[in-house]
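Translate structure to sequence.
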């Protein structure tokens, strides 16, 4: 019954839909969205009937499964061709590459001669045959066979012969040196007398020195850890009774934590055995350890360390053998034009007979050899750079020393000198340095030092200057000319003659040196060298005047 009612309602709605357009056309086009009155008629007497339909109960047939065969068989036939392989013979093309010509040389020779019977010969060889090894030879002889006093009785000559080489293995350089030095002087500090002839052989002094050294060092310095070590042996004697042997061991290790912080440790061990008229085969041992740490950042540099020293010299005023002396330095560059610096250092300066005769070759027998104890030394000042042309440094030093050495004419022979020690010496030093460079044409290096001594046991700072000036000039006007002009001046030197117990003030020393070199070609050149061109008859050591104007000329050749 419900289905019948639903069918009646559906039919009525269908009829209404069909009738509505007709009415709309008759009544006119209605407005959009307008709702009009409509009547619906529901009739219940109508019945809808549908014919019967047969139902299908048969299922669709199942198709047979598809089968495939996975057994595939292929037949491969081999075909062989009776052809021999082609033999190709290749040869590299030999193109000639001529060795480029460069200015690199394997040797330099110089020969010259001047007044005062002064021959000069120098030979330097440094062949470049191996990439991992280098070696060289240095030979030089320079003589002045006559001098300012009594002709040949004041002559001198110097001969040096050195062999050296280096072997490079990965990051390590192994180097060595073997050398011989011969220096001849005369004790000419006397007043010549015609009736008393002095034979040159009786006042001649000859120093013979043999050097050997072997060591290693790391080649790459940019690595965080660096090291070096060396062993040296020196044998020395003179024409009389002075002898000295020395074995020296040095080692150093450094580390760099970063670009600002680094440090290291340096050590030195020396065994020295001198003998002379007043002592025989004594053993002077010296050990020094220097650890330090350094900090660098943006113009600031700070270093702190200590000199740890043990030495066994037996001297009357010695208080101990073991020292721990602090070392500190600081510098700060506020701007390129201005900076400040300050250092504090204590140390034990090792002195040997060889060191003394290199400073004063007219030294005779002395009572004792002593090291110098630097109780402390303070150095402070300013430094800077102006327009990348001038570099300056001005400072003040003050130090306290024990057993500082001086020289006096020997109490038994005034033509020779002996060592004089002061128990406690205080030194005030004013110093300044100036460097100037101009377009690689001219360079200047000048220094000034002024000393004030406060002494304990002696009357004056014998044979030490009160002031010193050095001016070094270098000119390169073109590629052919090289000129050096150097001025050295000393003043305020006081001398003492212990034999006569007299004192005197030496005249100021003013010495001008000029050395000019002219290159005719890349291989051949000529040189001219002048010493004491102001012709000053000064004495660096009491009773020992120097040679007046001296000129040496010669030629040089590169090969």
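Result:
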């Amino acid at each position: 019954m419900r289905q019948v009612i639903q069918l009646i309602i559906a039919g009525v709605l269908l009829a209404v839909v069909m009738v509505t357009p007709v009415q709309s056309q008759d009544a006119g086009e209605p407005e959009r969205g307008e709702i009009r009155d409509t009547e619906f008629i529901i009739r219940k007497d109508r019945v809808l009937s549908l014919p019967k339909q047969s139902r299908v109960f048969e299922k669709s047939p199942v198709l047979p499964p598809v089968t495939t065969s996975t057994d595939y068989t292929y037949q491969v036939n081999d075909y062989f061709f009776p052809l021999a392989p082609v033999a190709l013979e290749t040869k590299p093309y030999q193109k000639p590459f001529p060795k480029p010509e460069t200015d690199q040389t394997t040797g330099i020779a110089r020969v010259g001669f001047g007044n005062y019977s002064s021959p000069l010969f120098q030979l330097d060889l440094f062949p470049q045959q191996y990439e991992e090894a280098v070696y060289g030879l240095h030979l030089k002889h320079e003589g002045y066979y006559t001098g300012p006093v009594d002709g040949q009785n004041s002559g001198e000559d110097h001969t040096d012969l050195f062999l050296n080489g280096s072997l490079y293995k990965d990051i390590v350089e192994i180097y060595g040196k073997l050398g011989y030095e011969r220096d001849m002087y005369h004790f000419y500090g006397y007043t010549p007398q015609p009736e008393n002839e002095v034979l040159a052989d009786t006042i001649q002094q000859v120093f013979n020195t043999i050097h050997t050294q072997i060591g290693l060092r790391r080649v790459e310095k940019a690595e965080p850890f660096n090291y070096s070590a060396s062993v040296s042996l020196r044998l020395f004697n003179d024409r009389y009774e002075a002898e000295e042997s020395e074995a020296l061991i040095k080692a150093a290790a450094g580390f760099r934590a970063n670009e600002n912080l680094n440090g290291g440790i340096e050590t030195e061990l020396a065994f020295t055995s001198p003998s002379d008229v007043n002592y025989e085969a004594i053993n002077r041992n010296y050990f020094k350890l220097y650890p330090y740490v350094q900090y660098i950042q943006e113009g600031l540099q700070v270093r702190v360390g200590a000199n740890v020293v043990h030495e066994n010299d037996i001297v009357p005023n010695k208080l101990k053998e073991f020292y721990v002396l602090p070392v500190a330095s600081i510098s700060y560059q506020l701007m390129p034009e201005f900076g400040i610096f300050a250092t504090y250092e204590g140390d034990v300066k090792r002195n040997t007979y060889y060191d003394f005769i290199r400073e004063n070759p007219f030294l005779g027998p002395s009572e004792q050899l002593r090291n110098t104890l630097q109780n402390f030394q303070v150095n402070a000042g300013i430094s800077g750079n102006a327009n990348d042309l001038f570099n300056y440094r001005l400072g003040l030093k003050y130090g306290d020393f024990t057993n500082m050495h001086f020289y006096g004419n020997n109490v038994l022979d005034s033509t020779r000198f002996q060592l004089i020690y002061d128990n406690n010496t205080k030194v005030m030093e004013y110093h300044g340095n100036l460097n100037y460079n101009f377009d690689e044409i001219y360079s200047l290096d000048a220094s000034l030092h002024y000393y004030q001594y406060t002494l304990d046991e002696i009357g004056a700072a014998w044979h030490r200057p009160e002031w010193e000036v050095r001016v070094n000039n270098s000119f390169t006007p073109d590629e052919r000319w090289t000129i050096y002009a150097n001025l050295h001046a000393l003043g305020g030197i006081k001398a003492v003659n212990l034999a006569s117990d007299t004192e005197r003030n030496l005249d100021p020393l003013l010495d001008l040196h000029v050395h000019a070199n002219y290159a005719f070609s890349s291989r051949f050149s000529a040189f001219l060298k002048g010493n004491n061109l102001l012709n000053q008859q000064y004495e660096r050591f009491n009773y020992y005047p120097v040679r007046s104007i001296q000129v040496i000329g010669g030629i040089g050749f590169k090969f």
